[in-house]
Amino acid sequence: MRFFLMIALILSACSSVPRLDVGPVPVPTTAWLSAVDWPAAASETTAVLAGYLRTDTTNPPGRETAGALYLAELLKREGIASELLEFAPGRHSLLARLPGRGDAKPLCLVSHIDVVTAEAAKWPADRQPLSGVIADGALWGRGALDMKGMGALEVMTMIWLKRLQVPLRRDVVLLAVGDEEVDNLGMKDVISRHWARIGCSQSINEGGLGVRDAVFPGQTFYAVSVAEKGLLWLKMTAHGPSGHGSTPIPGRAPERLLRAIDKLAQRDVPTEVHPSLRISLAQTGWHGGGLTGWVLRHPALWSMLVVPKLLANPASKAALTNTVHVTGFAGGFAPNVVPSEVSATLDCRLLPGIKPRVFLEELQRIVDDPQVSFAILHEAEAAESPTEDPFYQAIVRHAQGSSPAAVAGPVLSVGFTDSLFLRQVGVHAYGLVPFAVPQALAATMHGEQERIPVAEIGVGLKILLGAVLDVSAQDAAIGGR
Ligand SMILES: [Zn+2]
C-alpha cells in the first residue's frame, strides 16, 4: 500500500503536457467541404492517381516532364494555367497558381514528380510498379505513397478550389518538382531562379504519414513533420605507408581506419527528446487513455519508462540521437598489397541545434589520430518550423477530424526532403501525406509492392482540402453560400 501511495505522490508531482487544442473547423471551410460530392471526388482522385502512377517518372534517369505534362493537362481541363520549369536539360517541374486577394503570402502545395526505381520481379505479375491497378482494395504502383498519391491530392485540391470558385485570401500555388529522389535539382532550381515570384510563407509536402496502431492499438497517429535532422556526409580517410601483405606492420592505413570506426562506434551517444516528440506522445496519451496514456502525458516519467523503449527501436533511436553511420568503403582491393590510403563514407544525421562543423570537430577528437583525415561531402544544419502556426494547426485539425481513431502531432523526421530548402528561405514547411496505413504498408515506400488503400484516397483529399481552405478561403464566402 505504501508503495502505491509513494508512486501516486511521485506521479502527482509531475506536470503533464496539456491536450493540444486546435479549435473547431472554421465555418467557411465547413460550407465549402459540404459542397463536394465526396464519393465521386474520391473515385475521380483514384483515377487521377492511377494515371499518374502509369506515367513513368523513374529517377534515375528522371523522366519528370511526362509527369509534369500529365498534371498540366488535368489543370488545363479545369481552366488552370500552369508553367513548365526546366531545371536540367529536358527535365521539368510544374508551377501553377490560383490567385487570391493577397492578404497573406502564398500557400505552397509541394510534391515531387519523380519516383525511385523498382525491382519489377519482386512485384506480383498483375500489379507491376507502373500498373496503377486496383487489387485487394489498394491502388498499386511505385509512388503510390512516395509521393504521387500526395501529388494527386494536391492537384485535386487546386481543381476543387477552382470548381467551387472559392474566393481566396491568398494565392494557392502548386509546386510539383523533379529530382527529389537523387539531387533535389528541381527544388534547388525553384529556390535559386523562381523563388522571387513564388515566395510562399507556408507549405505542405511529404514528411510524415498517418500510421495505424503506431502507439495504441486501434489508434491512427498522423505524424506531421515539423523538423528534419541535419546532415553531415563525410569521407574519413586513413593514411599510412604502403607495403606487402605478407608482413603485418602496425600503423598501416586499413588498421587505422578500423580503429577509427571502432572508436566512433564506442563513443558516448547522448539522447535528447525533441519538443515535437514530447507534444506528440502526450497527444497520443490523451487520446489513448489508460495507464499508458497517463505515462505518456507525463514527460518526467519518460527517462525511466519511455526513453529505453524508444532507444530499443532503431527508427525511434535515430530521432533521439546524433547518428554516425558507416555506409561504404573505398581503396585497397589487391589482397597482397597494403594501400597507403583507405576510406570510409559516413552518413551523420544531426539533431536540431547541432552545427555540422562542431560535430565534425567532436568526431576528430574521438578518433584522435593525425593519420586519419576527414573531408566533408555535404552538410546541412537541421531546420524546424513552429507548431504555433495556423497552417500547422489546420493540418492537425483536419487529420484529427478524419476519424474518431485519429490523433495528430508534430514529429522530427530523421531523413530530409525538399522542405529542407524551403525552410532555408524562411518557409514554415510541414510534412504530411494524409493517408492512414499500417506500418507494414508504410515500409513499401522505396521497397517492394508500394500501394495505397483505395479507401484512404478520399479521406486524404478531405484532410488536405480542409486544411488549405482553413488558411486560404475568405470569410466573406459564407455570405455567398
Ligand atoms: Zn518522397
Distance between the termini: 63 Å
Percent of residues in helices: 25-40%
Bound molecules: zinc ion
| CATH topological fold name of the largest domain | Aminopeptidase
Spatial extent as radius of gyration: 25 Å
- CATH uppermost class of the largest domain: Alpha Beta
Overall geometry: globular
Q: How many domain regions?
A: 2
Low-confidence stretches: 477-481
Tally of separate helices:
18
User: Going by CATH, what is the homologous superfamily of the largest domain?
Assistant: Zn peptidases
Average pLDDT level: 94
So, CATH architecture of the largest domain? 3-Layer(aba) Sandwich
SS content category = alpha+beta
Total beta-strand segments: 18
Gist?
This protein is α+β, with helices and mostly antiparallel strands.
